[in-house]
Structure formats: C-alpha cells, structure tokens
Amino acid sequence: MKLSQEELAEIFDSAALRARLTALTSESDGDGSDSKVRAAVLAELKTDVKTARDKVEALLNEDGGGLACARRLSFVQDELIRVIYDFALHHVYRVKNPSAAERMAVAAVGGYGRGTLAPGSDIDLLFILPYKQTPWGEQVVEYILYMLWDLGFKVGHATRNIDECIRLARSDMTIRTAVLEARYIWGDEPLYEELVKRFDAEVVQGSSSEFIAAKLKERDDRHKRQGMSRYLVEPNIKEGKGGLRDLNTLFWIAKYHYRVNRQSELVKKGVLTRSEYLRFKKTDDFLWAVRCHLHFLAGRPEERLSFDVQREIAIRLGYTQHPGMKDVERFMKHYFLVAKEVGDLTRIICAALEEEHVKEPEGKGISGMMRRLRGNRGSHAVKPVEGAPGFVVEHNRLNATSGSVFETDPTNLLRVFQISDKHNYNMHPRLTRLIQHSLKLVDAKLRSDPEANRLFLSVLTSRNYPERTLRKMNETGVLGRFVPEFGKVVAMMQFSMYHHYTVDEHLIRSIGVLADIERGDSGDDHPLATDLIRTLQNRKLLYVAMFLHDIAKGRLEDHSIAGARVARKICPRFGLNEAETGTVAWLIEHHLDMSMIAQSRDLSDRKTITDFAQTVQSLERLKLLLILTVADIRAVGPGVFNGWKGQLLRTLYYATEPHLSGGHTKLSHSQTIRDAKEELSGKISHWKDKDKKAYLNRHYPAYWLRTESDRLAAHADLFHKADLEHRHLAFQVIPRAFEGVTELTIVAPDHPRLLSIIAGSCYSTGANIVDAQIDTTTDGFALDTVFIGRELPDDEDEHRRGERITRLIETALRGEERLPDPVTRKGTVKGRMKAFKVASEVLINNSLSDVYTVLEITGLDRPGLLYDLTRCIATLNLNIGSAHISTFGEKVVDVIYVTDLTGQKIANIGRQDIIRERLANAVEGKVELDPAAPVARKGQRQAS
C-alpha cells in the first residue's frame, strides 16, 4: 500500500508543530535552551506523538495493513527527529558561520533503516560526522537523544565519522549490516551520500560470499535459540523460524549481493518471479500486522505470540469461528502457513544465489560457501541415479535432468522422495522449486496409482529417517496434495497449553519418535516400547496408524472416531488388506485409551484391567497400542513424556498382558494373597514370629492384591520401626529418578481429613501431586502413598525436599500448624491461563469399578485444586480409595475412587446430584466447609 503525503500529513503535521515550538521561544528571546522552554517543547512533542500513534492504531484497525502501519510509524519518527534536530540547530545551539567540521547527518539503521517501525521498536540512529567529534556535535546529539529518551523511546545510537564507519563495517558484521540498511533522515545529505558510496566500494564489493555465510550462520544460531521448528504454538514473530527476522535476512543478502534497494528489484534481477515477489510482500505485510497489533495490545515491545494474546489478536484481525475451528485457531493456521511461505522464499533466494555461481571452482564463491555451510564436500561429477532416469546427484544433492521430469511421469513426485530417503540425499533447491511448481500433477489419478502409493508407503515406513523426508514432502506441498486429509491439518493449531506444535508437525514428529524407538535411539525413556517393537508381526500397521492418528483434528465429531473412518477409506489405497485396515482403524479409534486409563484409573482395581483387556482383545494390539501411545505423548512436546507416565503405561501393560495370553491372573484372589504374604514373610524372616503374624493380618485383602512386592517390604519395615519406637506417625521418602517422581509414604492414625492435610501440605510447599494411593489397616491406621513431581536433579536434594513436606504434614496433623486456604481462585487466574476456558464437569460412574464409585472431575488447572477437592469430599461423608491426577496443559482431570460410610457405592441419584454440585463448586474454588458436619475416613475397611 503506497502512502500519500496528504494521508501522512494528516497523521503528523510537522509544519504546525514547528510553528508552535518556535512560538514557545519568543518569550525567551529565541533561546530554546531555557529549562521552561524545553519542558514546554517536550510537552508539545508528547501530545503530538501520542495523537499520531493513536491515529496509526486506528488506521491499522480500519485497513489492517501491517506494512502501512510500520511505515506510518516510521514517518512519524522521521518527522519527530527532523523537528527536534532543527529546533536544536536554530533555537538551542545556533552556529552563524559553521566550520567544515560542524556538519552532521542523521541516518536510521536497523529495522528503522528499512522505513518500518513497530509501536514498541527501538529507534536505531547513526550520527554521521565528517571528521572527529566537536563540542557543537556533542551538544546536538545529546539534545536529540535526551529529548527522545524523555519521550519514552528506547534509542540505540552511534556517533562516528565516515572513516570509522568503514573501518568498523569491515571488521564487525553487525555494524556492516547496520550501515547496509542506513537511510537518510536529516542533516547534511552529502555526508550520508559519501558514506553510502564509500561503503559500497570499500566494504561491499567482492565480499558477498563472506556476508552471506555470516548471515546464514547467524540465522541458524538464532533458530537454535528460539526452537528449530517454525510450528511452535507460541511463536516468536520476530526472531522465531519463519518470522520477520528471516525475511530481513533474505533481504539483507539480496540487497548486499544484488545491490538492490527494494524487494521489487529482485524480479528484474530474475531472483524472484512476479508471483514470488507478491508472496514476499504478502507474508511481510501479514507478519507486520500481527507484530503491530501485538505491540499496541501489550503496550510494550512484545514479540512472543503467547496464548493469552492470540485470541485478542485474532479478533483484531477479523477472524471468526468456523465449525470445528475457533477464531484463534484459524488465525494461527494462517500464521503457520505464512511461516512456511518464509521458508519457501528462503530456499528460492538461496537457490538463485547458488545457480548464479554454479560454475565457480569448488570452495570458491557463493556455491562453494553454501556447500561448506551444509558440510557437503566431494567430487564435482554429476552422477545419474541408478534405476531412476531423470534424476542426478551432485554434492550429495538430488536434482532433475530436465524441467519435464514430473510431467513425463507424475509418479516421480513420490519417487523423488523415496530416492532421497533411500540414499540420504539432500534436495537441490532448484529441484524443490520444480516440485512446488508441479503440484497440480498430484491429482485423483496419481492418488489412486498403486506405484505412487507403494512409493509413499516406502517413505512412511522407512527404516532410515522418515521424519526428515516426510517434513520435506510437507514443506513442498506434496504430502498435503497426495493425502488431502493430511492437507486439512497442515498448519492447524490446537488452542491448548498441552500441544506444543501444529497438528501436521506433531504427526511428522511422532513418526520420528517411532523410528527412534525402532532404531534403539530413544535412550532409557521407553525401554518396554523398544523391546516390544522388535516383536511386532507387522510394523507397517504401526507407522500407518501413527501417521493417521490425529488426521481428523478440527472436525466437529470426536477426532478418534472420525480418524478411524478416514483410515478405513485411505488404507486400502495404501495397499493394506481388510484385516490390516481394521487394525489401523482400531488403533486410531482407541489411541487415547491407554494413556487415559494409565493416568486416571486405579490400576490395582481388577475391573479396570479386565475392561481394558476386553477392549484390546489381542496381545498384538496391546503391543501396538503401547508403542503408539508412548510415541504420541513423546511427540507432543519437550518434557510431556516422563518416567512416571512411562511407569504407569508399563504397569497397565503388564497387568493386562496375562489376560490376553492366558497367564497367571487366572489364579484366585485368595491364592494371589497367599503368595504375596509368603514372599513378604521370607523378606521379614528376622522378625519375631509374633510380630510377623500380627503384621500379615494387619492389612485388608485389597492391599495384598494391588501392592508391588518391593513396596510390601518397604511398608513392613516402616510399620515395624514405628512399632518398635512406639510412634503413631511414620514417614518414608523415596526419590524415583527414572519415573521423575518422589514417593511419600505416610503412616498415621485413621483420620477423616488425612488426604486433605497431605494435599494441603504439598500445596503449601509448591509440590505437585501426580498420584495417590490410600489404604487402611485392620487396627485403625492409615497407609497413604502420594507421588509428587520431581523438582531437583540430585536424589539427596530431592530427599531433603520430601522430608520438609513430611515434617509439615506431621505438624499439621498434630495441630501445631494451620494450613492456608488456597488463594488461587478462578477469578484470580493469571498469565497464560487467563486465555483458556475449561468447563467444570463432574462425572459419577458406578460401572468402572466393582467396589467404588468413580468421580471424574474436569476443570481449569490451578494450585490447590486437589486440596479443595479432598476437603470437599471429607465434608460429603465419603471414603477415598485412591486419587489419580492427570494434567493436560491448562486442563486437569482428577479421578477419585470413593464409597459411602458403609463401604458401598453411591447409588442414590439425589445424593449424586449433591456430590456433583459441591465438587463443581470446589473446582471453581468455592469450597463449603462445615467443621461440625460428620466426616469419615477414607479407605477399604468396609469395602474389603
């Protein structure tokens, strides 16, 4: 959008401002150095700047032009500096007969040098001098800078003569880039012109290879700092991959090498086609619109598009909600498509640079430099690819022999990626461009072609690095065209703190995790998955299911069910038979089941296991589902998968496996209990016979059925030591580094609010409970085990942390310390959490357990939530059997197993309604506590 002088004058009338400032000096005989005059001048400038910026924001909301907004702000800044400069010269530091040294040019550098500014951008200035600094020059520069600082601008500046500029630009790439972008604002224009002329002749000429190498390395280092993916759901729009800085880097390179001043000149140079130039402009304009809105909204130079601002930016940009997609998700999808465009433009310009210098000797010029950057060395020989006519390889990069290779045989659009994967070839930028220009050939005929589908399946199930090849297919657009269902989730963002990447990026990453597991490169994170994947009868099914498991995201119906339907349609096309298709569809429909059950169900409850086994039905499916679940969670984002989740999944697998293989779970409960007692008896053989017999009768049957062997022995030692020391309270802290949790075991007299006190103590110390197991002994003691998230890397430090928590539990139980009420309520949720709305929901289910009523409580996560829930449950006269806490970003799902005071399930509908209402209030932070109300201890006393 070209801005007219009339429009710009409407925004900031510098002539009128100059007249008002001159009038202010009349009372002091034209002396603008008077402190009162300076204060009045500053006030006038502040008023005009605020008015101008308000107008610019209003115009942004009206026309939506990002570049127009940035140019308007730059114009305002230019005019402001000109006014201040002239006021300093004519009214503050007047020189009637200036010497040759008393000259100065003011130039904008950095982003400001490009004539674009965001509302919160720094103002980068270069004061150019002819010789060394003079007292007059120091005074003028100081006046301008202090006036800008007092106006609230953050100013970066340098004062140098031309010789200094040239000398420093030769040695410092940052200064060289700043001078490259220098733009004249005001002052002695010949000085500026001399700098530009000398810079071009003495610095730029013959040094483009050096400059391009430095800028590309600088870009790569920045990407590593910001996160290598352009599909992070909270992107940095300036510094992140696919952001404005990447576009800046491209233009720096093009301007330096091709000696151009405007992007449009790259079309004349043959670097960009007309359509590619328009894409450049469009992406630049969109990113500037987002950045300007973000700065105006935040009131500061905020560059991260975080969850708490995304929805407001979406509304400002005019996005609306569509079926299956929120307004914010539509906006973010557009953002990620633009980020992808930036990547495409990067490849196009780099290809043009390399093409221009293709005949240069190895190691010389740009082509040699770019090969060195990639680490590719070797012979210049162009070698044909065996078995693939139409393709050649040079410097380990695959290229086409002609521009018609895909028109002649469209299956080559799949074959090219299969070749790249098989031989680990990189793609030549020219080949990438040709692929993108040939996308129209990916039509219904090619999608149904058996050979094309065979080639695609070969890439998807490759034993090499399928993630890398699939990402290249996605970036070129082939993947979304060949699998249209995948195309619908390209750049699709899920507005959730749980998901770190867009849907397509998550799917591609999950294939990479799967390949890592199969190669044994996943370390110790998932040993069971690594073992099981080697025993699969048909690994192909796992990769296809992994690729399709989230492909129906963004639809109105449940994506698991819709995804299974997509699989039944698409798998036969991939060459899968009916049985294979059925297995893939089943895996997709149930791909969340194992994670949900492992994290939110009582795995010691036999019905949990038998119900899950009935769903799975075969050991092969169980193996497939376990591996798929591990890879899915791991691909969500860094830190989402941890040892504790892995342990829960292993526990569920090992508990379910015998049901599907006819193993030892056919033993009766009584035999299982006898075996557990006999094993423990051997471990405590050093006890007195009387003590041993008493302890073996101290627990109810449920305890023996669900407690692992090592914990049985640890609990026995804890009880025995407490008995010998005549203590009623005993604690044990066990850091479990592999699982990423610390286990706290508490032995205490049966107490109606014990779990609530434990939860409150953890809340007070900042510890996050991830699971809890509750048992009651026959002699009235409670044995409660809670698992808290690990915070410290060293076991000794973590052990001391656990001991601090247990000391607080002890003092609270003794009544020596009062626990605080949770202060974080829904109305005071801060930060990113404010962006999310999670409806509070309480489900009451009597079919998930033979013994307990299962309460499934969903809501917005907050500190102290479990504390509130357990206090509420205590007032509802309910016994707690176990509690399981699962957090998915901003959403928490707490599942609590309860009975009434008689050990029975909650069957009365009226009472269920009361429980549902009270717990829903507790989720909102409205806990109704009645100290006089009768309360009951949790546990299995009656139930057992």
Q: What does this protein look like?
A:
Residues 503-625 form the HD domain. It catalyses: [protein-PII]-uridylyl-L-tyrosine + H2O = [protein-PII]-L-tyrosine + UMP + H(+); [protein-PII]-L-tyrosine + UTP = [protein-PII]-uridylyl-L-tyrosine + diphosphate. Keywords: Hydrolase, Magnesium, Multifunctional enzyme, Nucleotidyltransferase, Repeat, Transferase. There is one protein chain. By secondary structure, this protein is α+β, with helices and mostly antiparallel strands. Among the domains are: 5-205, Beta Polymerase, domain 2 (2-Layer Sandwich), CATH 3.30.460; 402-482, Hydrophobic Seed Protein (Orthogonal Bundle); 493-658, Orthogonal Bundle (Hypothetical protein af1432), CATH 1.10.3210; 728-923, ACT domain (Alpha-Beta Plaits), CATH 3.30.70. It has 41 helices and 16 strands. Strands 9-10-12-11-15-16-14-13 form an eight-stranded antiparallel β-sheet, sandwiched between helices. It has a four-stranded mixed β-sheet with strand order 3-2-1-4, sandwiched between helices. β9 (730-736) and β10 form a beta hairpin. α14 (307-316) packs across α15. The longest helix has 30 residues, at 327-356. The protein is globular, with a radius of gyration of 35 Å. 45% of the residues are buried.
